[in-house]
Amino acid sequence: MNKLLSKIEPSGIRRFFDIIERFGDVISLGVGEPDFQVDWNIREEAIYCIEKGATRYTSNQGLLELREEISRNIVKNQKIYYDPEREILVTCGVSQGLDLALRTILNPGDEVIIIEPCYVAYKPLTILSYGRPVVLKTSEENSFKIDLDELKRKISNKTKAIILNYPNNPTGMSFSKNELKEIADIANEFNLYIISDEIYDKLTYDRKHITIAKYIKEKVIYLNGFSKAYSMTGFRIGYICCDEELLRNMLKIHQYSMLCAPTISQYAAIEALRNEEKILRKILPEYKARRNYVYKRLNEMGLKAILPDGAFYIFPSIRSIGIESEKFSERLLFEKRVAVVPGNAFGEDYKYNIRISYANDMKKLKIAMDRIEEFVKEILKLKEEIK
Ligand SMILES: Cc1ncc(COP(=O)(O)O)c(C=O)c1O
Asked: What is residue 119's DSSP assignment?
């Protein structure tokens, strides 16, 4: 076996969800997957592709028509231009984008700064690319914001990149314009790449999402995809935008390891972009209402949570309950049939947080919140009686 694999744990999310499959009546607030169905225009385009036989390989880089559509979309939303011929590569989701980015820039022993709590793939993929993850922790006391002085202290002569993810999985936190400028300045000063995973950008509720590429385009590897805003998780489609030379090198790995992203999904993605406004008009008010509801309920029952800026997660503290999140999540599942993810799946320090996904309809969310409240009350009552 590859020795690096001994340094990698199976995903803390999946492990927990294998248990859930044993129960039938669970409300799952666990998986990071939209509950909305894929828009009919997108499904019809995929069906039509099969009917007309558009099922062959595309260019390694992806259909030019899709790259042009992606480029137009970024100009429309962010007022920044990526050349579809030279600066955009279509991938099998952001997952492959991350892997490609890391494999392209890292030499053995290079360090990558990873900001925790974070999406479960960053550390393992860095290790598999012979890199060394250097963790920068954030805490709820600071609203999960980065301490820039600490960020600077984490930088060594081996540091190659910082991975950013905003809106963040699992906290929902995003960055303001000023924060992004400051991070860009640091990357510039120390000549670092920023791998910016902006997969939840369209799901930002109270302000406009800004890509960090606006402030330091030449050093940013911008990752985005279709899984979240367009509910296309199973299509496995995403894209990378970056500097031309970097992209040319990524393409060397991509053409041998993947050849191209799935053709049907590429056509479906064109349709998704052409219907973006209609899709977002439907889902954004719904996600925002759910976020507000879940935030209010959790805080009212004593599980202190920070209002997320975006994505569809909230990361409340369960410290007041006095049970660690693995135990809390397990008991909540067994006793009340509600599934959440223990916080330590996103960084070992977060054993007093849980991740709740509100990608569920309001009716289910209400029942789930009632059950969590009941569970919390029972534990606190018992604690009181023992005293
Ligand atoms: C932050 C983040 N990045 C990447 C991914 C994976 O996205 P994709 O389906 O495009 O591979 C996820 C999925 O949950 C995620 O939360």
From this structure: -
